[in-house]
Known about the structure:
The chain is of the alpha/beta class. The chain folds into two domains: 5-217, YjeF N-terminal domain (Rossmann fold, 3-Layer(aba) Sandwich); 224-485, 3-Layer(aba) Sandwich (UDP-N-acetylmuramoyl-L-alanine:D-glutamate ligase). Helix content is 41%, strand content 15%. It is built from 21 helices and 17 strands. It has a ten-stranded mixed β-sheet with strand order 8-17-16-15-14-13-12-9-10-11, sandwiched between helices. A seven-stranded parallel β-sheet has the order 3-2-1-4-5-6-7, covered by helices on one side. The longest helix has 19 residues, at 29-47. It is elongated and about 80 Å long. It starts with 11 loop residues before the first helix and ends in a 6-residue tail after the last helix.
Amino acid sequence: MGETIQDILVTPAEMTAIDRDAARSGIDSFALMRSAGMAVSAAALRLFPAALRFVALCGPGNNGGDGYVAAGALADSGANVTVFALGDPKALKGDAARAHRACSLAASPAETYEPQPGDVVIDALFGAGLARDLPEQVKEIVERVTGNGTPVLAVDLPSGIDGHTGGVRGSSFIAAHTVTFMALKPGHLLMPGRARSGTVEIFDIGIPARLVAARAGNLRLNTPRSWAHYVSALDPATHKYKRGHLGVLSGGELSTGAARLSAAAGLRAGAGLVTLASPSKALAVNASHLTAVMLKEIKDAGDLSGWLQDKRLNAFVLGPGFGIGKKARDFALMLCDRALVLDADGMSSFREGRAELFEKIASSGGEVVMTPHEGEFARLFPEIAADAALSKIEKAQAAARLSHAVIVYKGPDTVVAAPRGRCVVNTNAPPWLATAGSGDVLAGIIGAHLAQGFPAFEAAAAAVWRHGEAGTEAGRGMTAETLVENIPPLA
């Protein structure tokens, strides 16, 4: 099950290069625009059969050209269509000018549009390449359309959404549906762009897949195709030690639940054995809650050093409920030569002195995954978090390069990034995953994959996807405990 073009993400700059390569290869660029506009018109008729009027808002570039083609096709089909143009259509150039000339409908100034009952707006003002705030006149149109509840069908990306970052450039339409071309853009997947794009349809307008793949970088949608090879390599007849031994480090007697959730998730997710390493004072409370998960007393660094003599113990989770401080730092530095998930308190303990951790990861050769949410990311990588010019994807990639670890930058648009630039964006997580203990479960799933021999990047990507599927299966009333119960099989 190999990668498909549907998995590839391209930045707006890469898409511009792809369009240019297609034209240079001899493909008729106007034929591509016509294909795009026809796809939009087909989506409009399919999705909004009760529309009383289609309103095409056409911008000053090629996105506007797509809109003129769509408007003409809708009119030819017998639909009631009105066109509004931003700027002077006579100033259009190239294919957009040709599309305008071919459209038999007269265009009124965009700023004069007043929504009417039964309207459906075709937003062809600006596409994914928008890199500035919307003009005031367009903001006013957006306000009128949004305030009136008029449905919007976006061409490429809702106008006002930055295709590079997913951010809102001053204001934006909120689309019911978006038709984009050849490949997804980061703005379709990163919040808030994802929430404002509605359902997204990728239409193949006829650019050869090889041209798209040649320009695409390391960005992908997170799907099982990203890590299927490692699933198929698992031997279903193997014994428990071949499936790995995961160690989860518990906190003190008043904060043991988070580590137990990670341990339970690790066992459910496929680790052959899971041991909860507990300080002395927490042994009784942990023992009273454990069955299949084993328990071992680990009081200090000396105990941990002795335990590490067992080389079958090949992966660890450190952080959930562990406590912030020197003990967490000491333990983390000792574990960097193994496969390690550094979560929660494990990361926060390095808010000061992170350089020692990053250098240890780089020199130890282990497989380390860090799982920060927004606040933890800002504490551990403050200079990266503060750079407003970077997308969430770029921030995760920068943090991975700096730390030498795989970064799982959590949220509704979780990004997984590797130190060498590979990156996937996850989209299958339901909103109710944002609940207490959910992150502890994710850490345990990653740990299970590491224990089974997955490389760190694939372990994290697969875990994030399974975590999302588990949340969907558990349903809106889920708790962290029921989330564990609903972790799906790897294959």
